[in-house]
Amino acid sequence: MPYVSVGAENSGTIDLFYEDRGSGAPVILVHGYPLDGRSFEKQSAALLGAGYRVITYDRRGFGLSSQPATGYDYDTFAADLNSLLDHLDLDDVALVGFSMGTGEVTRYLGTYGCGRVSKAVLLGPIPPFLLQTDEKEGVPQSLFDGFIAAVNGDRPAFMTGFLNDFYNYDVYKGSLVSEERFQASWNTATAASAVAVAACIPTWLTDFRDDLPKIDVPVLVMQGDQDRILPPPYTGDLLPGLIKDLKHIRVEGGPHAIIWTHADQVNEALLDFLN
Fold it and tell me: Containing domain of residue 192, as a range?
């Protein structure tokens, strides 16, 4: 299995697992919390079928990648992504992020520039800045503090509740989301590093507003209008005007996990944008 080394911790290396399949124009898919690169299976199939080279990888702490105790911040996540780009020597690549992965894409472009990137896609975005402050509406700090307490108290139970809102399972159970799919996601989530699962939560409050004006490639933003994890009024709805060249699509009835529940609609828009 292929790995790229992105650092070291004590006596061991920190390695990211990746898959590099197909040929043609390269597309890197950056997964969301609390899953791994396999969560893009429906997008990977569509992209491979359309003749793209598809690269997925597991964020540090998740999937088959190393599970270090440190490095859970967006500067490090972006550096990890940059290491993968360097390792594969990629140019003219499309970066596609989902959920937490949209932070990697945004911070990468803000830090390393767009020289190696042709287009970017933000699915269920976390930018520009989720936190409620005295100056702006948003999600209160207390909610995230509660998440961390819940993870530290009973991580498997937290994952059940989180995935309920991830899929809007109360609405789509048995129709767009099978019990087996939910269980598979839960299995992936609970196999992730306990350290990473807790440490990633504060990163959702990262302020990306300085990164966004630096993005000078076309960007597609796509989000479910029933997203309970990253509510559109505090995330995707704020991005028009902050990114120079942006196409914004709202998915009617879509939960956070539109890459699964509304995969046909997502894939059609994704392929149209990349083409």
Answer: 3-274
Instruction: Please pick, among 15, 185, 227, 262, the residue that the annotation labels catalytic.
Output: 227
pLDDT, tens only, 90-146: 999 999 999 999 999 999 999 999 999 999 999 999 999 999 998 889 999 999 999
**Beta-bridge mates of residue 16:** 4
Domain count, the chain: 1
Active-site residue, from 65, 99, 185, 193: 99
229 and 32 Cβ atoms separated by less than 8 Å: no
Q: What is the CATH number of the domain that holds 110?
A: 3.40.50.1820
Instruction: Indicate the pLDDT class of residue 1, thresholds 50, 70 and 90.
Output: confident
Range 252-262 average pLDDT? 98
15 φ, ψ (degrees, to nearest 5)? -120, 140
pTM of the model: 0.97
Catalytic one of 44, 58, 185, 256: 256
Half-sphere exposure of 214 (CA within 13 A, CB side): 17
Annotated active-site residue 256? The verdict is: yes
